[in-house]
Amino acid sequence: MGRATGRVLACVVLLVAGGALLLVVVVPRLAGATPYGVATGSMRPAFDVGTLVVVRPVDVDEITTGQVVTYQLRSGDPTVVTHRVVGLGTTVDGERTLLTRGDANEVADPEPVQAVQVRGTLWYAVPQLGRLMGLGTPEQRRFLTTGVAVLLVGYASWLVAGEVRERRGRRSSGATAEAASTTAPTLAPGSGPSAPPDGLATWWPAAPPGAGGARKDGRR
Q: What pLDDT, in 10s, does the model give residues 138-161?
């Protein structure tokens, strides 16, 4: 039971770690999206601190009121904000601008967001996984996630190999037991050892007719 429980727990850990790796790294990379970690409570209760938000690039003209967007505070600045669009506007040149506000804030953000600042709209969010985004630099996180992926694949392979070895062992033991049962000699009635006399724990086989020197009590 303990061995089976340990295997189940190992599989659960493997699934959780693999799922986190997929949500944080693999899926965003394949879809051309970008993961971010929520650092403040301005979007509570929708997104608490530590939430992972994954955003996909989108044409600013397609953004509508009510959508959640991630944008740079200043164009080219890596610092970003994730807030909800509460209004739309245009510049004198006819370019779309966004009026944004955090769900927990009472007033809108002071400056309208220009198209060049927008990084994308919300695709999906996962509570707590955003804390991983604060671990080191992007290069260090990439190295860490690659190492975790290798470990997960290796561990999964080890589990599968162990299960295969165990099944082969069970099959081999079963085949050996079956062979032993089919080759065991069968004694004819009356040809086996005689029953032990009362009071004796062991006994001698019955002596063949005419053989001397054997007593009924098993002693010579």
A: 666 666 666 666 766 676 677 777
Cβ atoms within 10 A of the Cβ of 104, count?
13
Report the Cα–Cα distance between both ends of the chain, in Å, rounded: 53
pLDDT digits (tens, 9 = 90+) for 62-121: 999 999 999 999 988 889 999 999 999 999 989 999 999 999 999 999 999 999 999 999
**CB contact set of 9 (below 8 Å; sequence gap of 6+):** none
Buried b (16+ CB within 10 A) or exposed e, 89-98: eeeeeeebbb
| pTM, two decimal places | 0.60
Phi-psi domain of 60 (left: phi exceeds 0; alpha: psi -120 through 50; beta: other): alpha
Q: Where are the beta strands (DSSP E) in 91-174?
A: 96-101, 113-114, 118-126
Q: What is the 3-state secondary structure (H, E, C) of 156-209?
A: HHHHHHHHHHHHHHHHHHHHHHHHHHHHCCCCCCCCCCCCCCCCCCCCCCCCCC
Q: By three-state DSSP, how is residue 107 classified?
A: coil
